[in-house]
Design brief:
The chain is of the alpha+beta class. 32% of the residues lie in helices and 45% in strands. It is elongated.
Length: 82
C-alpha cells in the first residue's frame, strides 16, 4: 500500500552536492508530489519533498539522498495507508 511522506534535507554545501541531489530526485519523479527549497545566505539549503509511494520506495529514496556527503536527511511517514 502507498503512503504519504515528507523528506526533509539539509544540504551543507549545495554548490558541491546539488547536482547529485537533483539527479536522485529526478529518478523518483513519479513519486514526488511537491518540493520546496530555501537557500540560506550562509551557504546551506533546506529542501522539503512530499512523496507518495510504497514504503520500500520511500526508504530507497531517503537512503540514496542520505548517502550523499554533506546531506542530512530525515523522513516522516504517515501511518495511514492510501
Amino acid at each position: 500500500m502507498k503512503r504519504i511522506a515528507v523528506i526533509s534535507a539539509i544540504l551543507e554545501n549545495p554548490k558541491k552536492n546539488q547536482e547529485e541531489f537533483n539527479g536522485i530526485i529526478s529518478e523518483f519523479r513519479g513519486s514526488i508530489r511537491g518540493r520546496m527549497g530555501i537557500p540560506f545566505e550562509e551557504g546551506i539549503s533546506v529542501i522539503s519533498i512530499t512523496v507518495t509511494g510504497e514504503l520500500d520506495e520511500i526508504n530507497k529514496l531517503t537512503g540514496k539522498l542520505g548517502n550523499i556527503p554533506g546531506v542530512l536527511v530525515k523522513t516522516a511517514i504517515a501511518k495511514k495507508e492510501l
